[in-house]
Structures are given as structure tokens and as C-alpha cells.
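Quick one, C-alpha cells below:
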């Protein structure tokens, strides 16, 4: 019993560290993550924090995976049971903007910020971000292609281009809200997404 409690406690501590790391990285970037700041915020020792990961790179990679899990739970999971094509695309856009509008992280969209931070860098952190963004692009493209084949979107539409446009619109929420103090940025983008997809 004690062994199970200790494993559960370690798991809970790791999740708490990753939640704090994702919040911090959404504001200061993944390169801005420091073990000292996390330890101070969580009331832990530096050894206690890094002991769950082994290195700063592993902490960054685990933070990316945690943020991807949050995104998946809040954006993809509510829509995945729907019919592929336009119905699921519209549900995705609604859930995506609900996620962006809260926002899920204090600095806004984690992956938009991480993409801007690492787009010209190399290494495992760049690769992990690129892989997850590309996976999402492929998911969007697949549903757009299904919508085109079903006649829900124009036959001459480009699935790849529409998926890129949806991502670009989503990425604009955080700067519009933070730089321009547009508290309705997510709602504006949701409307633009629906116009792009031929719905209101």
C-alpha cells in the first residue's frame, strides 16, 4: 500500500511540476524555464525538481508533452467522436477557440509561442514542437480533405492551405489579446474560421 502511495505521490508531483513549467514557458519561453524558479514556486528543492527529469532538456520535452496532452484533451477529444469532415472541423474550431479564449495557459497558446521561439533553432526541443504541430496540421488537413470530397467545401479548395489558414488564425489570438488588449480575440478568430469554412 505504501509503495502505491509513493508512486502516486511521485506522479502527482511530476504533474504539478509540469503544470507550473507549462505556465512559465507560455510566458517566458521554454528556454526561460529554470529549475530554481520552479523549485521556488513549488516549494521544492532544485534536486527534487530535476530529479523527476534528469536534465533541463528532458524537462522541456516533458513540458511539451504535457502541453500537448492539455491541447488534445480540450480541443481534439470533444470533437473526435463527430462525423469526419465539416461537422468535426467546426467542432474543433469551437473547442480550439474555447481553449484559446480561457486561455489554458497564462501566456496564451503554448504551441504558438513555442513555435515562434524555436522556429529557427535546431535540436530535440525544436523537433518535438515541430512534430506535434505537424501532427495537428495533418489532422486538420485530413478533415478538410474529407469535407472537400463530401461536397461540404469547394472542390477546388486546398486542404493544406485551409489547414495552414486555420493555424495562422489560431496563432493570432494571443498577440491580439495581449498586445492589442482585444478581450474578444478568440471570438473574432472563431468567426473568421467559420467564414473560411463556409459557415457562420
Amino acid at each position: 500500500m505504501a509503495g502505491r502511495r509513493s508512486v502516486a505521490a511521485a506522479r502527482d508531483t511530476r504533474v504539478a511540476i509540469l503544470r507550473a513549467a507549462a505556465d512559465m514557458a507560455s510566458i517566458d519561453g521554454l528556454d526561460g524555464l529554470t529549475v530554481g524558479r520552479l523549485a521556488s514556486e513549488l516549494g521544492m528543492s532544485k534536486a527534487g525538481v530535476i530529479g523527476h527529469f534528469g536534465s533541463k532538456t528532458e524537462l522541456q520535452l516533458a513540458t511539451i508533452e504535457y502541453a500537448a496532452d492539455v491541447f488534445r484533451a480540450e480541443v481534439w477529444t470533444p470533437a473526435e467522436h463527430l462525423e469526419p469532415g465539416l461537422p468535426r472541423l467546426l467542432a474543433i474550431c469551437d473547442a480550439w477557440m474555447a481553449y484559446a479564449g480561457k486561455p489554458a495557459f497564462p501566456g496564451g497558446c503554448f504551441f504558438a509561442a513555442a513555435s515562434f521561439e524555436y522556429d529557427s533553432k535546431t535540436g530535440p526541443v525544436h523537433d518535438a514542437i515541430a512534430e506535434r504541430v505537424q501532427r495537428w496540421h495533418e489532422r486538420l488537413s485530413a478533415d478538410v480533405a474529407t469535407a472537400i470530397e463530401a461536397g461540404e467545401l469547394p472542390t477546388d479548395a486546398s486542404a493544406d492551405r485551409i489547414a495552414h489558414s486555420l493555424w495562422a488564425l489560431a496563432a493570432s489570438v494571443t498577440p491580439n489579446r495581449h498586445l492589442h488588449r482585444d478581450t474578444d480575440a478568440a471570438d473574432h478568430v472563431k468567426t473568421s474560421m467559420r467564414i473560411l469554412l463556409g459557415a457562420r
